[in-house]
Amino acid sequence: MRTNVMLQLILKDWRLQRRMIVLTIVAGVAALAMLLMGGQTPVVVGTVFYFVSMVFCACLLPMQNIVNERKKQTLSFVMSLPVASAQYGAAKLLSTVGLFLIPWLSLLCAALYMILVRHSLPNGAIPVGLVIMNFPLIGFCLITGTALVAESEGWGTAAMAVVNSSYWLVWYLLVSHIPSLHETWSGPIAVWTPAVFKVLTVEFAIIVLTLGVTLYLQSRKRDFI
Amino acid sequence: MTDYAIELKGVCKSYPFFDLHHIDLRLQRGTIMGLIGPNGAGKSTTIRILMGLVHQDSGEVSVLGHRMPYDQVAAKWDIGFASEDMRLYDSMTLGWHIRFMKSIYASWDDAYAQLLLKRFGLNAEQKVKGLSHGQRVKAALLLVFARRPKLLVLDEPTTGLDPVARHEILRELTAVMVEDGRSILFSSHNTQDVEQISDQITFIDRGRIIDSMDKEIYLDRWRRLRLEVPDGVALPELPGVIGVQKAGRLAVAIANAFDPHLPSAYESSGARVRAVENMTLEEIFVANVEHSREEVKA
Predict the structure, then answer these.
(1) Where are the alpha helices (DSSP H) in B9-68?
(2) Do A72 and B72 make contact, defined as CB atoms within 8 angstroms?
(3) Nearest-CA distance from A73 to chain B in Å?
(4) What are B228's strand-pairing partners?
(5) Chain A contact set for B53 (CB, 8 A)
(6) How many other C-beta atoms are found inside a 10 Å radius of the C-beta of residue B120?
(7) What's chain B's average pLDDT?
(8) Mean pLDDT of B209-238
(9) A144-197 confidence digits (pLDDT tens)
(10) Which superfamily, per CATH, for B4-218?
(11) Which residues contact A11 (CB under 8 A, 6 or more apart)?
């Protein structure tokens, strides 16, 4: 019986990158723990560090898991296995996205716990928090797609620089064009306005589109190494 | 089932600064072929095409009866591939790599892997980043050999190795061939290694196959004739002689299709044959490449 090589490639990536995932979760939880101290400064510092831990993982994971495989010449070893380039691309995308979703979902749940159970922030922060939490996920998808398709450290770094400098710009554009997005964040209840749903839908569409285009372009490659 | 482990017919591939021209190559099952060429000759491109890693622009490629690159997954189950630029995961141990390969290949031979660990002097618990270059190459080859593949494709595996490590690897390659039906394609610019283990030799230069045949026939057909040419004697152009270099009264003729009557033909023209010498594979390789480049220029 023949083994599912794609599954083994995904498991291999998980074994290689698990330390980074654990570190991201630890850093994010430590940042959230600062919220328990109360007061404006710990809340601001904790929120910033929480976001930074996600952004850090969103940048480092694609570079480690995708770009380094080519840079450190382990790609020849992987491609000597019974796998086609399209399967390699799919396995790489699945493993990288799966790996990122672990800290992303864990820290999202931890943040909801802090808001709903520990009341560290008002419930009104949940909708806008979800919109902001999608930023590093989108950024991660864009960096991952670029790294996988462009096969170069230069393009990966360029994508990282563009994505990282866009977070605040995107947030500024969102709040200036959709004021209702942050008007209710300090309220005691979560208000799910149509604007919030619209932004979440667009964010979801960008994620799906980025991953879909990445898979499509990867499957059309003729020269792999 | 085809008799060939590898068959390339009219394969072309164009890059901005390099072209592979109509490559025709056949490796019979159960034989070792040495693919020799200078740096940038097209050895690695040819190997990447037959591994399905690069798609040819035109021509047909068949490996173990599978059409490449379309059936590359099916073909790769039975191909063991290692290249000079292949690296293992630095942060992991050799044992981790062995377990990884074992999780993929049902054909993995644990006893043979243990034997190779001993023969190559490797420690499975050592991290790859702590291995020397020679040990890394041996580790990569261990991972290939212990799968017991039907076809081994090795792209310059002995480059940068010390003589002892090279000898160990070549001995193991010869041992692999003891098993019936295994075939090896082995690229190198080290003609000594190729001469030692190959049954067939293929020369490649500037993207063209310039010659491909049985090693013994090769060595038998090429000869160097040292001649003394008295003043006033003109050397005739004889069939099978690809070049004559003259320095004063002395001349050296290189024959790529040596005929036992060749010395007497020179003698009857007035020249004196001082020696008829066998050529090493390296000398044949250099002469062949130079001759081919002159032909292309002409």
Answers:
(1) 43-50
(2) no
(3) 5
(4) B250, B272
(5) 79, 85, 223-225
(6) 19
(7) 90
(8) 89
(9) 999 999 988 899 999 999 999 999 899 889 888 888 877 888 888 888 989 899
(10) P-loop containing nucleotide triphosphate hydrolases (3.40.50.300)
(11) B103
Q: Per CB distance under 8 Å, which residues of A are interface residues toward B?
A: 1-3, 5, 8, 11-12, 15-16, 72-74, 76-77, 79-85, 87, 222-225
pLDDT, one tens digit per residue, over B253-273 is: 999 889 889 999 999 999 999
Report whether A192 contacts A59 (CB < 8 A).
Answer: no
Task: Give the chain A residue whose CA is nearest to the CA of B14.
Answer: A223
The pLDDT tens digits for B84-112 are 889 999 999 999 999 999 999 998 999 99
- What is the CATH architecture assignment of B223-278? 2-Layer Sandwich (3.30)
Residues of B within 8 A of A2 (CB-CB) are: 77, 106
In the predicted structure, residue B1 carries a pLDDT above the cut 60: no
Q: State whether residue B115 is helix, strand or coil.
A: helix
CA angle (B259, B260, B264) in 5-degree steps: 110
Q: Say if residue B252 is exposed, middle or buried (CB neighbours under 10 Å; 0-12, 13-18, 19+).
A: middle
CB contact under 8 A, A225 and B140: no
Which residue does chain A place closest to B81, by CA atoms?
A80
d(CA B296, nearest CA chain A) in Å: 28
Q: What is the pLDDT of residue B291?
A: 84
φ, ψ for residue B21 (rounded to 5)?
Answer: -105, 115
B178: Cβ contacts below 8 Å, ≥ 6 apart: none
Strand order in the sheet with B18-28: B18-28, B4-15, B58-63, B66-68
Q: Which of A74, A77, A82 sits opposite B76 (nearest CB)?
A: A82
The string of DSSP letters for A101-170 reads HHHHHHHHHHHHHHHHTS-SS-TTHHHHHHHHHHHHHHHHHHHHHHHHHH--HHHHHHHHHHHHHHHHHH
- Closest CB to B103 among A1, A3, A87: A3
Measure the CA–CA gap between B98 and B265, rounded to whole angstroms. Answer: 62
Which of B76, B101, B107, B128 to mutate: most A Cβ within 10 Å?
B76
Residues of A in contact with B72 (CB under 8 A): 84
Which residue carries 């993207």 as its tokens? B207
Residue ranges of domains in chain B: 4-218, 223-278
Output the CA angle B289-B291-B295, nearest 5 degrees: 115
